[in-house]
């Protein structure tokens, strides 16, 4: 397997693994907790290294994972005092723990090379050099297996505890009433998030784990209302961001992890703008469609209300309608032109008259809006 293919596979696995627990963080409105965890786990790595003096020791992963859980606990403890809001507690905890880690490295590990850029952004290009060799045989990059195992664990835990996670996310009081412990489920999720962040730390760094955990689930939320579908889309968007981001980074000769995060952002912008149901463009299109339909119904209502009255010619003239409706002349012209083209109204000497078809359509509108009460309306007598 070529180095480029290995990097693409690692990126896809890590991005998908991050997106799965990240979806629950988005549902729980805890997105920025990811930022705190991904910074503070460095302190867990440093403390475990001081104990083992081995950068390849699995205890570094254990230490970082426990530090991530400790970060969550400390943040929530500060928040529960009611002296700090959650965002302030997050900022204090993660910046303090991250800074302590940097100071410890500077004081006690001067001979150990730790690149600040690698800590923040990772260096996925070096992943193929760290090989998994067993019995003298090269099985490929170690990160492939690590990220694959994390992805499988995330899938298994979320699959097994999906009901509990979903219930404690959206209705923790009911979950507690029927015997589920929101506390245990919450820290199970935080443990999963911490473990995933540790696995992704070396490849994409502490900062960009946030992008891979949060952006794909948010993007999926624009594309589907079904929770299970959102999980599938989150994983697919994350994996695709990793593969496309690496290809773009090679083409542009820029940071791999940074390019993957940018691709994530581009996917989000596409969903934000053009998602069929929730996209900004479709929302604006529906808004203007409703607004235009409202204008047409309002104009038709006004014309019918004054039809056959002594003041019909004054009220229903093109010249006076902007004043009576409080609209601009262009708005009146646009609505009236449509009604004329449909044969709903007709114009004579600048005066609008409602046709029989217009009275029928008006009654149909009223039925849609008011149901059976519309049967009492009499369009022939102005409503």
Describe this structure in words.
With 383 residues, the chain is mainly alpha-helical. The protein folds into 2 domains: 3-208, Orthogonal Bundle (ABC transporter involved in vitamin B12 uptake, BtuC), CATH 1.10.3470.10; 282-381, Orthogonal Bundle (Arc Repressor Mutant, subunit A), CATH 1.10.10. 73% of the residues lie in helices and 4% in strands. The chain has 16 helices and 4 strands. It has helices at residues 3-27, 33-52, 59-80, 86-108, 116-121, 142-160, 162-170, 172-177, 182-223, 227-252, 256-274, 280-306, 312-315, 321-325, 329-341, 356-370; strands at 131-134, 137-141, 345-348, 351-354. The strands form 2 sheets. Strands 1-2 form a two-stranded antiparallel ribbon. It has a two-stranded antiparallel sheet with strand order 3-4. Helix 1 (3-27) packs across helix 9 and helix 3 packs antiparallel against helix 4 (86-108). The longest helix is centred in the middle third of the chain and has 42 residues, at 182-223. The N and C termini lie far apart (77 Å). The model has no long low-confidence stretch (mean pLDDT 83).
């Amino acid at each position: 397997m070529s180095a480029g293919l290995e990097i693409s596979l690692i990126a896809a696995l890590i991005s998908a693994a991050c997106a799965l627990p990240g979806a629950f963080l988005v549902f729980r409105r805890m997105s920025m907790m990811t930022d705190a965890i991904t910074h503070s786990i460095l302190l867990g790595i440093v403390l475990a290294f001081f104990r083992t003096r081995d950068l390849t020791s699995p205890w570094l992963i254990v230490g970082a994972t426990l530090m991530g859980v400790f970060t969550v606990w400390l943040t929530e403890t500060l928040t529960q005092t009611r002296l700090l809001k959650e965002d302030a507690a997050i900022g204090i905890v993660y910046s303090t723990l991250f800074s302590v880690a940097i100071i410890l490295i500077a004081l006690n590990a001067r001979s150990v090379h730790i690149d600040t850029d690698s800590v923040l952004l990772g260096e996925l290009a070096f992943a193929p050099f760290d090989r998994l060799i067993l019995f003298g045989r090269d099985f490929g990059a170690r990160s492939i297996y690590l990220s694959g195992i994390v992805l499988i664990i995330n899938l298994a835990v979320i699959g097994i505890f999906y009901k509990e996670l979903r219930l404690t996310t959206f209705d923790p009081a009911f979950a507690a009433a029927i015997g589920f412990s929101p506390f245990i489920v919450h820290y199970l999720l935080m443990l999963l998030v911490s473990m995933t962040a540790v696995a992704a730390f070396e490849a994409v760094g502490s900062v960009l784990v946030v992008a891979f955990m949060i952006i794909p689930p948010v993007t999926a939320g624009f594309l589907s209302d079904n929770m299970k579908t959102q999980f599938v889309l989150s994983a697919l968007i994350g994996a695709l961001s990793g593969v496309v981001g690496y290809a773009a980074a090679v083409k542009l000769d820029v940071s791999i992890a940074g390019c993957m995060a940018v691709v994530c952002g581009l996917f989000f912008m596409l969903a934000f703008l053009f998602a069929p149901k929730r996209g900004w463009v479709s929302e604006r299109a529906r808004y203007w469609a409703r607004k235009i339909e409202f204008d047409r119904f309002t104009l038709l209502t006004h014309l019918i209300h004054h039809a056959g009255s002594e003041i019909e010619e004054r009220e229903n003239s093109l010249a006076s309608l902007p004043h009576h409706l409080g609209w601009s002349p262009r708005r009146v012209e646009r609505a009236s032109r449509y009604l004329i083209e449909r044969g709903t109204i007709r114009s004579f000497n600048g005066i609008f008259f409602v046709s029989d078809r217009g009275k029928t359509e008006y009654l149909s509108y009223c039925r849609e809006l008011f149901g059976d009460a519309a049967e009492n309306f009499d369009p022939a007598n102005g409503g």
